[in-house]
Amino acid sequence: MKKFTRKALGLGAVALLAVGLAACGNDDEKGNDKNETGGDTTKSVGESVDYKITGIDPGAGIMEATGKAIEEYDLSEWDLTTGSGAAMTASLKKAYDKEEPIIVTGWSPHWKFTEYDLKYLEDPKGVYGGEEEIHTIARNGLKEDMPEAYQILKQFKWTQDDMGEIMVAIHDGEKAEVAAQNWLDANEEKATAWTEGVEKVDGDEIKLAYVAWDSAIASHNVIKIVLADMGYDVTLTQVEAGPMWTAVADGSADAALAAWLPVTHKTYADKFEGDFEDVGISIEGVKIGLVVPEYMDITSIEDLK
């Protein structure tokens, strides 16, 4: 802020200065009234973001849930843009660095909550559900065909903090497989628990499908190393959510560790009921919803109207 030094002025100069300052004040009030988010305080939340919610790939369950939220909260003016997780976080960074308003589809665990000061918008209608769980799903018959791999997948359980360490390392530039190996080296007791009671195999092939979410990249790279150490020849295939569930259901993939239930992937779980096995929960207390920077003065999805 500029500091003005008061000097002795004649009455005429004082009057002119007063008029000039008043004019500047009026200009600020009319055209430059900015709030702390960098937006015009005369604008609604919708106007400040062009009625846009920045989403991810169209096949993701969170996108379906957001479409329902737009209907439930009567947000017919709003558009949900599609793209990728990387594009979403790039848009978030661009807006955050300038303290501009933005609304994105979000989920946790995710590195963006470590990198930026963010918050979920309250969801009083419960469209996004409460806390969710990440499940491991497998094709029917995996337990009989690959009992050792099945047991490892069933025993695979860790925490959001565990996953977060790998996601942050990847975000900071580490290769996914290197970040996973570093984490395993520092957490040998957890890998030991996952393989407890399991005998090694000799080159058996196993195929895992996963979505391009940072959480799934972390979990699948970790389990790939664990399975490989137990003698498996592991293939990872990155697909969108729909093809991931389809691959497990039709047997072209043996398993996936990225099924978010009961809300995010409910449509797929219902569609393929009976064509897959729910092996178990690997992480509890995960969440999805609409996310905004803390500096935005809104707290609920209802504030978007």
From TrEMBL:
The lineage of its organism: Bacteria, Bacillati, Bacillota, Bacilli, Bacillales. It comes from Filibacter tadaridae. It comes from the Bacteria. SUPFAM superfamilies: Periplasmic binding protein-like II (SSF53850). It is found in: Cell membrane. Its main location: membrane. Keywords: Cell membrane, Membrane, Signal, Transport. Residues 1-22 form the signal peptide. Residues 44-185, 205-305 form the ABC-type glycine betaine transport system substrate-binding domain. This is Glycine betaine-binding protein OpuAC. It holds the Pfam family OpuAC.
